[in-house]
Amino acid sequence: MAGLLDGKRGLVMGVANERSIAWGIAKAMADQGAALAFSYQGEAFGRRVEPLAASVGSDILIDLDVTDEASMDRGFELLAGRWDKLDFLVHAIAFADKAELASDFRFRDTSRANFSQSMLISCYSFIDVARRASAMMPDGGTMMTLTFEGSSRVFPCYNVMGVAKAGLETAVRYLANDMGPEGIRVNAISPGPMKTLAGSAIGGARRTYKHSEANAPMQANATLEAIGGTAVWLASDGGACTTGQVVMVDGGYNVMGMPRLENL
């Protein structure tokens, strides 16, 4: 049986290690026949990504800094030098000052510098990358990013990242409208709390993880495999009419108005 993504090529941005959501997506896509390229920022992350990329048969690794225009130009020039077109893009990049995600930090004290940097890396970078990637999608394609429900509801310590994710989700809708006539679909995947390197930077992460697991209808948090399967669907022909959406993959936690009775 042919893989759902046989013959498709995609760029995956944001793999930090084997527990990254981006890696769960990359692995699932590779298992379905996709050829992958990876971007990373700096030598330290490059050393982590290289063996993972090799494990799925990829030798395209691009050092790319989304805050630097010249780096972005070089990165996409390198990618275009290896591939004549792109079928999908996975954007899994976000950043905020860890000190402003701590349990004793108040959102109202968000610094101007951290707000600007968080919005640039966590929101604008998707717009910038999407514009560049679309130039490599003459036959259409799929773009996806990662968000979190802290965009629309308050989660302890999520702070400025909630504002950045709200902007990111709005960008998804506007990009979907912009690129739809070109046959390019744009969506976001929203997992619930997960044990990742990025998630561990948020104050109270373990308690948040346990709470969502105990109170979700499925009484479980998302797995890398479940998120990867969702990404495969979005990138495949099965996702041909899905765009501008935030797809929830959180065991149903987002539908709950209060904790389960047994947990009150």
Can you tell me about this structure?
It contains seven helices and seven strands. The chain has helices spanning 21-31, 43-55, 69-82, 112-134, 160-179, 205-215, 224-235; strands at residues 9-13, 35-40, 61-63, 88-91, 141-146, 184-191, 246-249. By secondary structure, it is of the alpha/beta class. Helix 1 (21-31) packs across helix 7 (224-235) and helix 4 (112-134) runs parallel beside helix 5. It has a seven-stranded parallel sheet, with helices on both faces. Helix 1 links the parallel strand 1 and strand 2 (35-40). It has one domain (9-252): Rossmann fold. The longest helix has 23 residues, at 112-134.
Provide a compact summary of the structure.
With 264 residues, the protein is of the alpha/beta class.
Distance between the first and last residues' Cα: 48 Å
**Chain-averaged pLDDT:** 95
Structure classification = alpha/beta
Give the tally of β-strands.
7
Major β-sheet, in short? 7 strands, parallel
Question: What's the gyration radius in Å?
Answer: 18 Å
Stated plainly, the CATH topology is called Rossmann fold
If classified by CATH, what would the architecture be? Answer: 3-Layer(aba) Sandwich
pLDDT under 50 segments (min length 5)?
A: none
Q: Please list the strands of the largest sheet in the order they lie side by side.
A: 3-2-1-4-5-6-7
What secondary-structure arrangement, pairings included, does this model have?
Layout (H helix, E strand, L loop, with lengths): L8 E5 L7 H11 L3 E6 L2 H13 L5 E3 L5 H14 L5 E4 L20 H23 L6 E6 L13 H20 L4 E8 L13 H11 L8 H12 L10 E4 L15
Parallel strand pairs: 1-2, 1-4, 2-3, 4-5, 5-6, 6-7
